[in-house]
Design brief:
about 20% strand, seven-stranded mixed beta sheet, alpha/beta, Rossmann fold, about 240 residues
Length: about 240
């Protein structure tokens, strides 16, 4: 078990998956505002970096797992002009917001939202040219199981592309971000979302999540033939690209 897999949003004996589902159902209405506020708007630039990496793969079939409110699925549909993007999550509350956004954007016939557990996807082997996810991998209850499932549903030479929040390597920036994540994020998160646990849980999972070379090794250990990573914005976010 990796450290972040043991961290749960709430107290109690419920599995992490169940608690994460509850957490995101609770904060769904304010999730987008919180993301933009707490990242100072950098989350949009990070998604654009991921889209550029995805464009280089020229996929025709894309699965966006842990889609949340569907921001990246919407970006995929608009930038790649695909006829169908499948977006999955365990939180119906988050996907409800995503469906509303897709409707407003006129993409409700393009993006198919469906509830899925990434550790046991319902899709056949070799279904997708690319699998993507943004800021969701650290919430997986079983990282290895989810990566193996993603690998299974990818076509040969298919790509996994994902963004994840990370701690800066630079000691000074790491110190500043440590203070920000411990003192500012939980307070702002509590005020905007009304959930006392949501943005205490976030920095804890960030700190425990395998990063950089360690995450690269985990990807290779779970069957991917090639994996690279790029640190963005002083290391606050990392973009990973892995090939089956």
């Amino acid at each position: 078990m990796y450290p972040q897999e043991a961290i749960k949003p709430y107290e109690g004996n419920a599995h992490k998956r169940e608690q994460v589902e509850q957490l995101f159902d609770n904060i769904a209405p304010t999730y987008d505002a919180l993301n933009h506020t707490l990242s100072f708007g950098f989350d949009r630039a990070w998604r654009n970096k991921a889209i550029k990496a995805l464009l280089q793969c020229h996929p025709e079939t894309v699965l966006d797992v842990a889609t949340g409110t569907g921001d990246f699925a919407l970006l995929i549909a608009k930038r790649l002009k695909l006829r169908r993007v499948i977006a999955t999550d365990i939180s119906q509350g988050m996907m409800r917001i995503g469906r509303e956004k897709a409707m407003r954007e006129g993409l409700h016939d393009t993006i198919l939202f469906q509830k899925e557990d990434c550790s046991a996807l319902s899709f056949p082997n070799a279904s997708f040219d690319a699998v993507t996810t943004t800021f969701g991998v650290r919430n997986f209850e079983d990282l290895d199981a989810c990566l193996r499932e993603i690998h299974r549903v990818l076509k040969p030479n298919g790509h996994l592309i994902f963004l994840e929040l990370s701690y800066p390597n630079n000691k000074f920036y790491r110190l500043l971000f440590g203070i920000y994540s411990r003192l500012v994020m939980p307070v702002v998160g509590r005020i905007i979302s009304g959930d006392d646990s949501a943005y205490t849980y976030l920095p804890e999972t960030m700190k425990a999540f395998p990063q950089g070379e360690e995450m690269q090794r985990i990807l290779l250990d779970n069957g991917f033939s090639h994996a690279t990573f790029s640190r963005l914005t002083m290391g606050l976010c990392t973009l990973y690209v892995a090939r089956k």
